TrEMBL record:
Taxonomic source organism: Janthinobacterium fluminis
Keywords: Methyltransferase, Transferase
Start and end residues of each Methyltransferase domain: 48-137
GO molecular function: methyltransferase activity
InterPro entries, alphabetized: Arg_MeTrfase (IPR025799), Methyltransf_25 (IPR041698), SAM-dependent_MTases_sf (IPR029063)
Presence of keyword NAD: no
Keyword Methyltransferase set for record: yes
Protein name according to UniProt: Methyltransferase domain-containing protein
Lineage top rank: taxon: Bacteria
Coiled-coil zones: none
Range of residues in the leader sequence: none
GO biological process: methylation
Length: 307
């Protein structure tokens, strides 16, 4: 019988099919960014823990330098997959794949680096924030300080008002879309620059609730019918070079139920709130957008639109 968290995990994505993890292996930006960050963060002789190991590839990157890696995975299908993959790769013997719940597992000894790539746009669906905060509390209780280095080290999240095309061969469908950050998307227009609504530093206590109530000055006239959510993961801070190793998630475009006509110079107010690990519909239901200054009328307006 599944408990409440296990039921939610199945719904929110922890038990995604194996082939989705295979697709992640084929994501070159993800793979290159994590390999570079792990190579920088993990020094020879270190002990490493990965929470939510999937195919085991990130643990394998760490095993190139680490003495020992614990790779924790809750999905039994992925446990088998990780063990199979690691067995046919050099240094795979240094990785112990542990079938356990990341919310509860602690390594048998202190570790130097913790990898936790439970990353979804906006920190939605997957439980990265909650898992890391739980780990910090339990680790300090058992081993004391200092805490290990976390990878990613930080996350920057932003939102942007957009005009999004929802025509699919004549079929109108305002759906949630995930878009590659490097591709050109015809029919998509940026109406204003993005605004940062949260910066997470995993070395500090992290609030599990995110909210935004801000204004945008519209730079291009059009129809506001979507909000783009941007998530930039700071995988590692390279202090000696004053730079970072980053990975940018796919953009997430959420449709607004009631589109708004906007003109250049208008002031748009947008607000929303949600909890880390929550569902996409929970975020959609909280979105409010309204024109609070109409540039054409040069007078305050209040025309709400709810997503």
């Amino acid at each position: 019988m599944l408990n409440e968290r296990e039921i939610e995990s199945c719904y929110l994505g922890q038990f995604i099919p194996v082939h989705y993890h295979h697709n992640m292996l084929m994501d070159q930006n993800r793979m290159h960014g994590f390999k570079s960050a792990i190579d920088y963060a993990v020094k020879p002789g270190m002990k490493v823990l990965e929470l939510g190991g999937g195919t085991g590839v990130l643990s394998w990157f760490a095993a190139a330098k680490a003495d020992k890696v614990w790779c924790v995975e809750f999905n039994p299908d992925m446990v088998k997959e990780a063990r199979k993959m690691l067995a046919i790769n050099p240094n795979g013997h240094k990785v112990e794949v542990v079938h356990a719940d990341a919310f509860e597992y602690l390594p048998p000894e202190p570790v130097d680096v913790v990898i936790c790539e439970m990353i979804h746009v906006g920190m939605l669906r997957e439980k990265q924030v909650e898992v890391i905060e739980s780990f910090k509390r339990r680790y300090l209780q058992r081993f004391g300080g200092p805490l290990p280095v976390f990878l990613p080290e930080a996350v920057i999240m932003a939102v942007q008002p957009m005009q999004q095309e929802y025509d699919f061969e004549g079929f109108y469908a305002p759906i949630v879309q995930f878009q590659e950050t490097t591709a050109i998307h015809p029919g998509v227009q940026e109406l204003a620059p993005p605004a940062v609504y949260s910066i997470i530093d995993f070395n500090q206590p992290t609030d599990s609730c995110f909210s935004f109530n801000g204004k945008f000055v519209i730079e291009r006239s059009g129809t506001l019918n979507s909000l783009r959510f941007v998530t930039k993961n700071i995988l590692a801070v390279v202090a000696e070079r004053s730079t970072t190793i980053d990975w940018l998630n796919h953009y997430m475009s959420l449709p607004l139920a009631s589109p708004l006509k906007v003109n250049a110079g208008d002031v748009l107010q947008v607000s929303f709130q949600y909890r880390a690990g929550g569902s996409i519909p929970s975020l959609e239901a909280s979105i409010q957008a309204s024109v609070v200054y109409d540039a054409a009328l040069q007078a305050p307006q209040s025309v709400p639109a709810y997503a």
